[in-house]
Amino acid sequence: MKNFRTEILGLLLIVFISVNATCQEKTSSDTDTKAKTEKKSKKKKKKRKKVKLPDIDLSHWKVTLPVLNEKGKPYEIEPPEILDFASNEVAKPYMYIDSTKGAIVFHAMPTESTTKNTKYTRSELREQMVPGDNNANWTFKDGGNMKGVIAMDEISKDSKGKYHKTIIMQIHGRLSNEQRDLIGEDDNNAPPILKIYWQNGKVRVKTKVLKNIAASNEEILHEDAWDDDEGFNFEQEVGFRKFTLEVQISEGKMVIILNGNEYKVYESVHMQRWGVFENYFKAGNYFQSRDKGAYAKVRFYELEVSH
Q1: pTM for this one?
Q2: DSSP state, 13?
Q3: Domain made up of 55-306: CATH architecture
Q4: N or C: which end of the chain has fewer CB within 10 A?
Q5: End-to-end CA distance of the chain
Q6: What angle do CA 266, 271, 273 make, to 5 degrees?
């Protein structure tokens, strides 16, 4: 009887050890599976982190690209179609998202796609206060603010080994329909009061000045009443690094700010007289060369406008 009990206890012990080992193996297997799953999940999360989108609302912008449309004019995309630019086959070579940088890249090079009164081409946004309408604009009295985070991505060099230049921001003047008719023009074009260049790794600003300060309000509506100023270079060298550029407009005053700590203020009779014009903001890559093989790619990480 004692031997029988001993055998039974022995069998029970063997069963217990076997079951315990199986449970341990299952627990170990479950732990390994969980660890592998968590590891894969972390890898996926890391991959997702590399995908970034630019902080830019395009609902009040249209774009002009360095390619011709079916009518032989520069190809443009207006709201709301511009919101889907990333899947537009025509736009893809000239305006696309760099998801590793979180930026929109504007790519321009010499082509036949030139707008009136210029020989240069552009991949450039044009503000539309009313989406799809060029006739709603603003004056200096209305005021406005444009701020962008930008970087030069790539740009070619000329035959002397110097970088080409491009305009990255503008304020363009515009005649109202009444002003256009008053001076007998066939379009609403007026001079740009502001051009901001990337030039030789620095930010350069150009504005307009009246040739004759005593000119009448009607006379200053003519483009030839204005001349270019001598220009201004900010001291900071931005090179190919990311930088912040802000333009602040108020009545009779224009302020350009680089990286929040370097200012250029325009507050003169020229700014005061400019108050007769309507205006709109522009931003992107207005490339300033016709050299064969020349090009530029400009990244915009952020762009915002307010009035």
Answers
A1: 0.84
A2: H
A3: Sandwich (2.60)
A4: N
A5: 101
A6: 165
